[in-house]
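Example (one chain per record):
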Amino acid sequence: MARRTFSIGGVHPNDAKISRNCKIETLPTPPTVYIAVAQHIGAPAKPVVAVGDKVKAGQVIAEPGGFMSAYIHSSVSGTVKSIGPRKDLSGNNQMVVEIAVEGDEWMEGIDRTDTLVTEIPQDPKAIIEKIKLGGVVGLGGATFPTHVKLSPPPGKKCEMLIINGCECEPYLTSDFRTLLEKGEQVVVGTAIIKKALGVDMATIAIEDNKPEAIDHITKVVAEMKAKSSDYAGIEVMSLMKKYPEGGEKQLIDAVMHRQVKSGGLPIDVGAVVDNVCTALAVYEAVQKNKPLVDNSVTVTGECFPHQANLLVRVGTPLSYIIDYLGGVPADAAKVISGGPMMGKAIANLDAATLKGTGGILFLTEKQTRRMPESSCIRCGKCADACPMGLEPFLLNRLYKAGNTEALEANAVQDCIMCGCCLYSCPAGIPLLDAISQARGQVMGIMKARAAAAKAAAEAAKAKTE
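Predicted structure:
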């Protein structure tokens, strides 16, 4: 198998996969869940239940609020106690459906057995509809509605499906455990997505620090190919370990040697990228009629004595998960949702998990302490490390000068906020902080400009009619 990596930038942090040997354990159902209606890119879903309603696990509780939206299902059975704002992990109010758990009754038609279903449905439209009804979103971090991703716009055609098994973010191991423990389901899910896209080739890409997963998935693919032609064209590719290999554009570069241009999408170069856990969710939605109501979460950190990978119902309070494993360690200074490079600090431990929650990381004061900031020495290490080919030192200066035009001209909007610039800076300059602010400002300006242009076009059209 070829061993490749992306061509621009990247860094090599300690991968710290200290929970890699922890099998996925099912977390007991909490007494109450808080299910947000906005846990995907796009418009929030609209609640279709009322306070006092009895619901079952797998039942729709919110419908898509637009084209770019997704169904939300109850992850438990019980009674709807409230529908209203509740603080998320950042401390911001989000609309949630609160459900008091009563038993564990599931909707009829959901197959919860472990029986593997390998026969692939042949109707792409029916597959995509099932994925849509299952509320499946991307589980690699972006939570892009999967049914939208699998429906390329006119004139765009997918040439290769890439299943992202890199899990390049340090500490996180839930994808790795999924490959080992649910590898057959991931491969079936890959074949289903391939059928939905009408594409012949699919690559399951895994970094070479996970040799057990590479060997296992390679064996599973070979067995599936021997059984059915529906699995033809699926290959496993070992990639060199480098962060952020799991970024969509970086992964496409590594696998296909194609670069997505500024402002472009993967489909522009003939690629669709899905995470391994997304492939598993697709398998469950299409083959088992099970909507996306749970996901695997890594709970880890050197200061945390109870490493774990847990299968968690969506809407479970973070405090419930942490208490189950023994509580917050005394020497933890910060708790992160996700990994140390792109994760977000948790301001509210009573916040609930979302479909895309992949990790809870505990860091000590020493691990979170930043080095003293000094003057830029113009070494260019941040530019060398940037996987998007940007110049972080320049973007930082332009942000401080308030020059949004120059920031846009220098493509600050292309920043993927991976943190490579901050990681590599010997002067300790908080480049990511500044660039994140600059990116938000420029993207706001670009959206406002696009909205104004759309309004002007509609007004001109109205005049001619």
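Caption: The chain has a mean pLDDT of 96.
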